[in-house]
Amino acid sequence: MPRSERSSLLLAGLLATAGAAHFAAPRQFDGIVPRALPGGPRAWTYASGAAELALAAGVALPRTRKAAALATAAFFVGVFPANVKMAVDWRRRPAPQRAAAFGRLPLQVPLVLWARGVAKSADSRA
Fold first, then answer.
1. Do 59 and 6 meet the contact criterion of CB atoms below 8 Å apart?
2. What is the pLDDT of residues 52-79, one digit of tens each?
């Protein structure tokens, strides 16, 4: 299996795992939904989980990979405010939790770059 194919499938697996977690344990995600969003946090938790599952399917399929990978990059940018909210909310928690919350912030950059790289690889194979 070519490296670009493995990278695509790993990204799809990450998205699918995260999406499923939104349904399996929604409560942990409800707390990081920015209050400025309309509606209840649970609706946003389920919507983002469904989006991640859809993106996973799109990234996994070669025919839709490029568009889904670009949408994934945009999704990672779009959920950044939730990670900021989590870091702010957790600033007084014990050090390991605080480190995890703040550690998520810079991780968004490689996730966005990974998704863009998958899109570029899909484009070069087309």
1. no
2. 999 999 999 999 999 999 999 999 999 9
CB-side neighbour CA atoms (13 Å) of 95? 0
Closest C-alpha among 58, 66, 76 to residue 118? 66
**Rg from Cα positions in the chain:** 15
The residue to which tokens 């839709």 are assigned: 64
Listed residue (79, 85, 80, 53) closest to 68, CA to CA: 53
Query: Measured at the alpha carbon of residue 56, what is the angle toward residues 54 and 60, in degrees to the nearest 5?
Result: 120
Taking the C-alpha atoms of residue 18 and residue 122, their distance in angstroms, rounded to an integer, is 23
Domain range summary for the chain, segments of one domain joined by +: 3-125
pTM for the model stands at 0.90
Contact between 85 and 54 (Cβ < 8 Å): no
CA distances from 99 to 71, 81, 86, 106 (A): 28, 17, 11, 12
